[in-house]
Amino acid sequence: MEESLTSPAAQVIIAVIPIVGIVIGGTVVFFYLLWRHREISLQIRTGTFHPKKFDYKLFSLFTGLLLLGVGSVLTVLFALLEGVSYTLLGGLIPFIIGIGLMVFYKVCPEPVRKDGES
Hints:
Keywords: Membrane, Transmembrane, Transmembrane helix
Distance between the termini: 73 Å
Helix content: over 70%
Strand content: under 5%
Oligomer: single chain
Structural class: mainly alpha
Number of helices: 3
């Protein structure tokens, strides 16, 4: 029989650590969302809430450039290492999503700005 390199107690601890991390992380995210919701609700009640403007066009440009760069590097790397195989999809998928976001950036019209908005 093979002798185990780690004791059963160590294996249990190694298995429990990620579970505890996920539970604690989930709790932190839950309370952040809850408190943010309450904060916005109170701001709406008092009339001090100003919604943040989110620039989808700029976000699509930034995300598209990042995914295009990462996808192209991964595609070349996987093509050199593995050739044409399913592994190549690990680079092609972000590459194609990056191209799609860049097309969205070009096709999306400029938002109409009201007087006094920057």
